[in-house]
Amino acid sequence: MSEAAVVPVRRGRREDEPQVLALADQLAAFPVPAWRTAREIQRADDAVIGEAVRGDAPGTVAFVAEGTHGLDGAVCLTTKLDYFSREPVAHIEVLAVDPGARGRGVARALIRAAEEWALAQGSRRISLNVWLQNERARGLYEHLGYRPETMHYLKELQAPGPARSVP
User: Fold this and answer.
1) 107 pairs with which residues across the strands?
2) Which sequence spans correspond to the domains of the chain?
C-alpha cells in the first residue's frame, strides 16, 4: 500500500484554521535563540497559517493530513522568487505534526503534497527554513533529500549611548 493511501492529505480549508493553529502551538518546542521568544515565533507562524488556510494570498496554500480524531498535521506554503535565479520557488513556511502522530509518515506525506503542488505551479525548487537548534526537524528534512544552502546570521544591535568626550 502506498504511503499516500495510509496518510490522507487534502487541501486546507477555512474551517481547518483553528486545528492548524492548535497544531502549530508546539513549533517552538525547542531551545529557541536567546534573542527570540516562543510567542514571537508563534505569532509569525499564526499569520502565515491564516493566509495559507484561507487562501488569502495568491501563491499560498495549505495541505492537511486527516487523522481519525481531527488533523494529524499541516504544511503551509508560499511562493517566493529565488534570490539568484529570480525564478519562482515554493517555500515551506510551516510544517506541523501532532506529537501523537509522529513516526507514522505524516510529515513525509505532507512534504510530498507540497512538492507536487510546487511542481504543478511551475517551481523547479522548494525551500524551507529551519532553526539551527531544531535538530529533529533538520534530521527529517535531510532524510527527505533537503540540503542546507546558506546560513542566516543575525546580530542584535544596540543604539549608541550619549556621546562621551575622550580626555
Assistant:
1) none
2) 3-143
Are 113 and 86 contacting, i.e. CB atoms less than 8 angstroms apart? Answer: no
R_g (Cα) of the chain, nearest Å: 18
CB 45 within 8 A of CB 27: yes
Q: Which fold has domain 3-143?
A: Aminopeptidase (3.40.630)
Q: The whole model's pTM is what? A: 0.84
Q: pLDDT tens track of the chain, all 167 residues?
A: 344 448 999 999 999 999 999 998 888 777 888 888 888 988 998 999 999 999 888 899 999 999 888 899 999 999 999 989 999 999 999 999 999 999 899 999 999 999 999 999 999 999 999 888 888 899 999 999 999 998 888 787 888 877 666 66
Query: What's the CA gap between 63 and 9, in Å, rounded?
Result: 7
Q: Which residues touch 125 (CB under 8 Å, ≥6 apart)?
A: 82, 87, 89, 90, 118
